[in-house]
Specification:
Bound molecules: protoporphyrin IX containing FE, iron/sulfur cluster
Distance between the termini of chain A: 33 Å
Number of domains of chain B: 4
Distance between the termini of chain B: 89 Å
Number of helices of chain A: 4
Shape of chain A: globular
Number of helices of chain B: 15
Order of helices and strands of chain B: HHHEEEEHEEHEHHEHEEHHEEHEEEHHHH
Largest sheet of chain B: 5 strands, mixed
Strand order of the largest sheet of chain B: 7-8-9-14-15
Number of strands of chain B: 15
Largest sheet of chain A: 3 strands, antiparallel
Structural class of chain B: alpha+beta
Oligomer: heterodimer
CATH superfamily of the largest domain in chain B: Sulfite Reductase Hemoprotein, domain 1
Number of strands of chain A: 3
Strand order of the largest sheet of chain A: 1-3-2
CATH architecture of the largest domain in chain B: 2-Layer Sandwich
Largest interface: A-B, 24 and 34 residues
Structural class of chain A: alpha+beta
Radius of gyration of chain A: 12 Å
Shape of chain B: globular
CATH topology of the largest domain in chain B: Sulfite Reductase Hemoprotein, domain 1
């Protein structure tokens, strides 16, 4: 059963905004937790749509990509702390 | 003379005194032609030599609209001293299959880069892309526009994406190619555009395609999924040409070692004794091969290319999981599919890829390469998730791991047993 895209996007955004208060950069795997019943590829597609809408942004070291909420958080050192 | 400022860089300049051409010369010359970025780069390098620390910040939020890769953000952490390299982003450009270019294309690319970047390039990165070194954030969209509209080129992969697939020169120039490496590379690039440009994976993932087991793109060492051409029928033998090699009329290795006198060609010593599976012998002046035992190493074919050729029932061997991590050392890829026909539209191969990606996206940890997932969850789990049948070829050498684990449903009759009854007979 495919999940509702808009609902998924909403949940991802809420999850990311809440989480970014203490850790501003998230791996795609972290976003899976926003809606555990969604498939990885659905989460990826929804997260990418949020990036295109400017509600999330990519953050890349060159080798690894993370997601962040625009305006939240600091630099790279924090991003790669586990 | 362009209006540029050269920094005082005694330690960097010292690099020019060695016997080899130095990047310090090249970058300085580019700088003196009017690229302050190049001179600032050398200035910052001098400072790094002095402090024994890098002054680059690693990573950032850069990219072009709709893409999560292709641009690698780099920033100087001493921008006040070196303002022209406050931003110094790397742009990866997807190379054409097998890296064929027209000179017109290269001129145009260099013009774009001279105009909008530092003018410095790296042809090619280990992933295969053309690497354009050093530009500013506000130039990224115009560069992307020019690349796509003027050159018909796209950005390559970076970050937790599919990386730009790459291939050997294949059938375009090499008679040994058992598969159309360029078509496969291009097809995968097009099919997986979304995976290439939009991060979906725990970490990077690379496809590399070699036309034969000589593996000129080192797919087996450098790709998470290696596609290596092979054949399943017999090596084609031209016995007349074998005689010509033995008689000295044909030069072994196509004459490539003929700058020194190695003495007369000795087929026993140079070919037969070096066959890793000992499956060749002479009967009179005829060369015989037990093809069932041949491991397709290419040695005999490389030495006597006019006498021996790969078979005609061709396809590919698929291996997975190579990586070169800094901490635990290089790992070659592991055999997954000994033989698969590789013909367009490559559906069987793509089905396999879908299965393994699904597993990795579900189970892979952050920054865990595909090969590491196999190591962590076992080859057996990989085989199960990839929907493959275990076969003897998957076990290394004859055996480096003596254990085979069966699950109950794989064994006829299962193994129900009463632990209490067992313990009544056997002390714990
Ligand atoms: C002491 C300084 C540096 C260290 C220790 C370092 C370390 C690394 C490591 C470990 C990787 C591989 C990451 C991975 O694949 O897991 C990497 C990749 C990379 N680094 Fe650095 N780096 C340094 C400086 C720089 C500088 C100065 C630049 C550019 C100005 C740079 C640009 C890159 C790029 C473009 C990649 C490629 C990412 C990829 O191909 O996946 N690095 N670096
Ligand atoms: C002393 C100067 C440098 C040396 C000797 C050097 C050497 C190398 C080598 C050997 C590679 C691997 C190439 C390959 O295997 O294909 C590489 C990759 C790379 N270098 Fe450099 N490099 C230098 C300076 C720089 C600078 C100044 C930058 C950017 C500011 C840079 C950015 C990169 C990037 C982005 C890659 C990764 C390309 C890829 O794999 O996609 N390098 N470099
Ligand atoms: S890998 Fe084989 S087919 Fe490809 S270029 Fe090398 S020798 Fe030729
Ligand atoms: S390809 Fe290698 S294994 Fe096969 S016959 Fe030739 S030398 Fe032996």
């Amino acid at each position: 059963m495919a999940v509702d895209r808009e609902e998924l996007k909403q949940k991802i955004l809420e999850f990311a905004t809440k989480k970014s208060k203490h850790k501003s950069k998230m791996y795609i795997k972290d976003l899976y937790k926003a809606m555990p019943e969604a498939k990885p590829r659905e989460v990826k597609n929804a997260a990418n749509e949020l990036v295109r809408e400017g509600k999330l942004e990519f953050f890349s070291s060159g080798s690894t990509t993370m997601y962040g909420v625009p305006g939240m958080g600091k630099g790279l050192e924090e991003a790669f702390e586990d | 003379m362009a209006d540029v400022k050269k920094h005082d860089t005694p330690m960097v300049d010292d690099l020019k005194s060695g016997p080899w051409p130095s990047f310090a010369d090249d970058i300085e010359q580019m700088g003196l032609k009017g690229k302050q970025e190049c001179l600032d780069l050398l200035g910052q390098l001098e400072l790094s030599f002095k402090h024994k620390e890098t002054h680059w910040k690693h990573g950032g939020i850069v990219g072009v609209f709709g893409y999560g890769g292709g641009v690698i953000g780099r920033y100087s952490d001493v921008p006040d001293q070196f303002p022209s390299i406050a931003h110094f982003h790397t742009v990866r450009v997807n190379q054409p299959a097998s890296k064929f270019y027209t000179s017109k294309y290269l001129r145009k690319l260099c013009d774009i880069w001279d105009h909008r970047g530092s003018g410095m390039t790296n042809f090619h990165g280990s992933t295969g892309d053309m690497v354009l070194l050093g530009t500013k954030t506000d130039q990224l969209e115009p560069i992307f526009y020019d690349l796509t509209h003027q050159l018909g080129s796209d950005l390559g992969g970076s970050g937790s994406n599919l990386r730009t697939p790459s291939c050997c020169i294949g059938k375009a120039r090499c008679e040994w190619s058992c598969i159309d490496t360029q078509d496969i590379c291009y097809d995968l690039t097009q099919t997986f555009q979304d995976e290439l440009h939009r991060p979906a994976f725990p970490y990077k993932f690379k496809f590399k395609v070699s036309g034969c087991p000589n593996d000129c793109v080192a797919a087996i060492a450098r790709s998470d999924c290696s596609i290596i051409g092979t054949w399943r029928d017999d090596i084609r033998i031209d016995q007349e040409a074998v005689k010509a090699y033995v008689g000295g009329e044909l030069k072994p290795n196509a004459g490539s070692h003929s700058d020194r006198d190695w003495g007369a060609f000795d087929i026993q010593k140079e070919v037969i004794d070096l066959c890793p599976t000992n499956c060749m012998w002479m009967e009179g002046d005829e060369l015989k091969i037990d093809n069932r035992e041949c491991t397709r190493c290419m040695h005999c074919i490389n030495v006597m290319p006019e006498a021996l050729r790969p078979g005609v029932d061709t396809g590919a061997t698929i291996l997975v999981g190579a990586k070169a991590p800094i901490l635990d050392g290089a790992q070659l890829s592991t055999l997954a599919i000994p033989f698969i026909k590789m013909e367009p539209p490559y559906d069987d191969f793509k089905d396999f890829v879908d299965e393994i990606w699904m597993w990795w996206m579900e189970e892979g940890k952050n920054r865990e390469r595909f090969g590491e997932l196999i190591q962590r969850q076992s080859l057996q789990e990989f085989i199960r998730r990839a929907k493959l049948k275990p076969i003897p070829q998957m076990v290394k050498e004859p055996r480096s791991n003596p254990y085979v684990f069966w699950s109950e449903d794989e064994v006829e009759g299962g193994w129900e047993r009463d632990v209490k009854a067992f313990r009544a007979r056997h002390a714990a």
